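Is this the right way to post structure tokens for a design question? Let me know if I should format differently. Anyway, here goes:
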């Protein structure tokens, strides 16, 4: 069974709509989810309910000249001809719409038959509106961004009532050089979209867009490292992308923050703590040098001969400049989250704490909401308390504060 497809062979669409609709009502009433629910949908409902009610309408962020300037400068503007070529026929048939959003779920283009677009406008499915889960609830483009995977959302699987007459399929689109999420491509229409072909089509369209971007993007003169939100770093160098193993990812991240270089023993302590095996660390460094090449990695001491541009360094520089919104937008997750190497843990915690403190100090509702809607920020009591002060007293935020307060009190008592 494919968890990303809305229906399985033999499902009756009408009966499935009723089943999920009843599950949605029970969820809103606080009852446990049923076994018939797709996990990806149930998890999305839980994330959505932390921020909006089921009758909520997506807000509009950008309009007119601001929208036009923003989307014309967005990387996905370059692949709109591909989107239109592959999905334009669907958008023109009167039953479907094609939509493209950025990495924050902000719709950039929504195209289709005028009558269909008028129906979508009633729920603010329009360019400039925010359709991430925190602002619009469970929906294909917003949830595809949240889980970074192509999927379908069928009728009553949508969290927001005004959206439940629609069905959609969406796929995320990435920067082929860095792996950074650029946005998503979506097809929205009637219940007949709940078939394997629509999901395959949007996924193929996303892959075609990424392949095109790979051919037209200039080769970065400075090697680039992406290590945020991923357990294995991605190195872009000399026009090619290299996925590094766990230890090599850790070593490269450490070398980028020690431009003066480190001895093998020092790097061993950063990787293994007191349990250092000199032979093992020398072998790892030798293999990493073969990957990077002698033009990038020196030995005695081990140091990078060329400065590398890192995504975690970029976030730190944005924080240094006080550009908190941009720093949070550029932060897809913690540094090498699966690593337990002492040096990486220290770097990860330092950046996380800086970004969290910066978001908290702004008192900005949208920044707080973005942090709390992330996998790493969902249980952050301090930020929930700050967010609760900015929304109605009877909101979901107040209930979330109460739940977390009880949980933390129980944990303290247990210890």
């Amino acid at each position: 069974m494919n968890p990303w497809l809305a229906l399985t062979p033999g499902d009756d669409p009408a009966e499935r709509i009723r089943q999920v609709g009843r599950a949605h009502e029970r969820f809103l009433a606080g009852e446990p989810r049923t076994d018939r629910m797709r996990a990806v949908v149930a998890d999305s409902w839980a994330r959505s309910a932390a921020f909006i009610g089921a009758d909520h309408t997506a807000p509009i962020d950008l309009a007119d000249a601001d929208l036009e300037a923003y989307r014309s400068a967005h990387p996905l503007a370059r692949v709109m001809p591909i989107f239109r070529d592959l999905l334009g026929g669907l958008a023109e048939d009167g039953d479907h719409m094609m939509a493209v959003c950025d990495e924050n779920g902000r719709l950039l283009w929504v195209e289709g038959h005028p009558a269909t677009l008028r129906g979508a406008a009633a729920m603010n499915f329009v360019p400039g509106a925010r359709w991430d889960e925190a602002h619009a609830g469970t929906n294909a483009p917003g949830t595809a961004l949240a889980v970074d995977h192509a999927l379908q959302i069928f009728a009553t699987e949508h969290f927001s009532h005004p959206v439940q007459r629609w069905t959609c399929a969406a796929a995320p689109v990435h920067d082929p050089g860095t792996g950074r999420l650029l946005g998503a491509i979506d097809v929205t229409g009637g219940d007949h979209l709940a078939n394997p072909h629509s999901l395959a089509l949007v996924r193929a369209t996303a892959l075609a867009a990424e392949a095109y971007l790979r051919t037209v993007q200039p080769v970065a003169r400075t090697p680039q490292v992406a290590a945020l939100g991923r357990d294995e770093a991605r190195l872009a160098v000399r026009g090619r992308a290299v996925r590094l193993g766990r230890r090599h990812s850790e070593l490269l991240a450490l070398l980028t923050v020690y431009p003066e270089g480190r001895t093998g023993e020092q790097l061993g302590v950063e990787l293994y703590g007191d349990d250092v095996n000199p032979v093992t660390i020398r072998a790892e460094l030798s293999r990493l040098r073969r990957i990077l090449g002698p033009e990038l990695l020196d030995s005695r001491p081990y140091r990078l001969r060329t400065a590398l541009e890192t995504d975690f360094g970029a976030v730190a520089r944005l924080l240094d400049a006080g550009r908190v919104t941009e720093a949070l937008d550029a932060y897809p997750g913690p540094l090498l989250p699966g690593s337990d190497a002492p040096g990486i843990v220290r770097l990860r915690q330092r950046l996380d704490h800086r970004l969290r403190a910066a978001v908290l100090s702004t008192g900005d509702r949208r920044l707080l909401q973005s942090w709390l809607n992330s996998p790493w920020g969902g249980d952050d009591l301090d930020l929930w308390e700050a967010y609760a002060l900015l929304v109605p007293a009877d909101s979901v935020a107040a209930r979330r504060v109460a739940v977390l307060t009880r949980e933390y009190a129980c944990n303290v008592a247990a210890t």
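Format looks fine. Someone answered above. Worth noting: The chain has a mean pLDDT of 89. The CA atoms of residues 131 and 169 lie 14 Å apart.
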